[in-house]
Amino acid sequence: MSQDFTIYNTLSRKKETFKPITPGYVGMYVCGPTVYGEAHLGHARPAITFDLLFRYLKHLGYKVRYVRNITDVGHLVDDADEGEDKIEKKARLEQLEPMEIVQQYTVGYHKNMEQLNTLPPSIEPRATGHIMEQIDAVKRIVEQGYGYEAEGSVYFDVEKYAKDHDYGKLSGRKLEDMLENTRELEGQSEKKSSADFALWKKADHTHLMRWEAPWSDGVPGWHMECTAMSTKYLGETFDIHGGGADLKFPHHEAEIAQSVGAYGKESVNYWMHNNLITINGQKMGKSLGNFITLNELFSGKHELLEQAYSPMTVRFFILQAHYRSTLDFSNEALQAAQKGFERLIKAIDLLPGLKASDSSTIDVDKLIADTWNAMHDDLNTPVALAHLFEGVKWINAIHDGHHKATQDDLTSLSDFVKQFVFDVLGLTNETEKEQSVGNDKLNEVITLLLNLRSEAKAAKDYATADKIRDQLKEIGVVVKDKKDGFEWEIVE
């Protein structure tokens, strides 16, 4: 590599050279889903973004501990500590136990993540499995004077913290503006300030989930789980914390304050945030009718979808944009991604059959260096893919006899493309999978017909040879004659 690996640190608002706390090891925590509904497009982007980072860090030789949580309690329908727990609300609507809701949607989330070919995290802790750690962290914050009890609940004293530290440093918000723009909510008079957030919430008689704590039977605040679980598995300071841009405030801002309040220091060295997905220029939301789950996307069963899109088309679509840029979903964009992905896979399929020459008209070493350098520049996948598709042009040109490459260059090109596409980008050859499942017999039949066509041509029975070619073309099988035989492909 001609440069250091740099990542954009949301906290400093600039790219920084990545230097792990412990040489050779990386601790990474990423906010996972709140499991009260099916995974949707908004879940796909952070999952793929941080899967890419996980893969790339491993490619660079780091031993990575990747922790991604499951939120199964404490996340209220209103982020301002108001309303029902999202999972309890769903459980009441469906007349199920909260843990039934959790299990149902956790299983579904994992299935969708497997379809998108995201690697499982090293550890996947659940909030309900770490109540004691959260209670301990709340105790620490209270002991340090940044938390206070009020009628059985415990709140973080934001104004007191802000006198000693910069509250709002991650999101860029000012406490004065927060206080001006936040009204007191009914039933929240127990707070000292409207900017304070819950560390522990007392459960009333309607709560389905509750735990015993020194202050009351209740539930932890939503922000507390990540502070407790990240430090449990990665230590009181660790390398990377990731999540969607929508979590910068209040969730991640609260995490910074909690870690300082509990441990006397900030836990995270690099904050990374992927940007959001819009749909036809609009923010995704159920009320707008543009809320698309991954299952709907893969099946095509949604009124906004013109067709079904495969998991790898979706993954490729997301990788085409830089993770920090807004990504707009549309049928046209997905269809363009599908064509680009198919072109890439077709080129990879050609690699084993390329013929070596005694010289090269391509610069494979520069292509490889340029691609890795783009990845070193804050995971710049759009630029990296642009270089990769220059390689795709070369592969097609070598196949068609318009470019030449030595055996060493062909080997380097093939090894690089496969490593980058499959191991780092995490794409898979879906066509190869489909063929292995059901297309073997079809391949045999087409090959048999083309062998008969070759025999007809050898016997100068051109009428029969042309008839076989033309009828195959009518059903979508395109035949291309070559000096040493033929090749064919199925086109839609």
Structure, explained:
- This protein is α/β, with parallel strands linked by helices and 492 residues long.
- It is 47% helix and 16% strand.
- The strands form six sheets. A five-stranded antiparallel β-sheet has the order 7-8-9-11-10. A four-stranded parallel β-sheet has the order 4-3-12-13, sandwiched between helices.
- Strand 3, helix 1 (41-59) and strand 4 (63-68) form a beta-alpha-beta unit.
- The radius of gyration is 27 Å and the shape is elongated.
Number of strands: 18
Shape: elongated
Question: How do the strands line up in the largest sheet?
Answer: 7-8-9-11-10
Secondary-structure class: alpha/beta
- Beta-strand content estimate: 15-25%
Tally of individual helices: 16
Residue-averaged pLDDT, rounded?
92
The low-confidence runs, each spanning 5 or more residues with pLDDT under 50, are none
How many angstroms separate the termini? 41 Å
- Helix content range of the residues, please? 40-55%
User: How would a textbook summarize the main sheet?
Assistant: 5 strands, antiparallel
Topology of helices and strands:
Blueprint: E1 6-9, E2 14-17, E3 25-30, H1 41-59, E4 63-68, E5 76-78, E6 82-85, H2 86-94, H3 98-115, H4 131-143, E7 147-150, E8 153-156, H5 158-164, H6 175-181, E9 197-202, E10 211-212, E11 217-220, H7 222-234, E12 238-244, H8 248-263, E13 268-274, E14 277-279, E15 282-283, H9 294-299, H10 311-319, E16 327-329, H11 331-350, H12 364-376, H13 381-399, H14 407-424, H15 430-458, H16 462-474, E17 477-482, E18 485-490
Parallel strand pairs: 3-4, 3-12, 12-13, 14-16
Antiparallel strand pairs: 1-2, 5-6, 7-8, 8-9, 9-11, 10-11, 14-15, 17-18
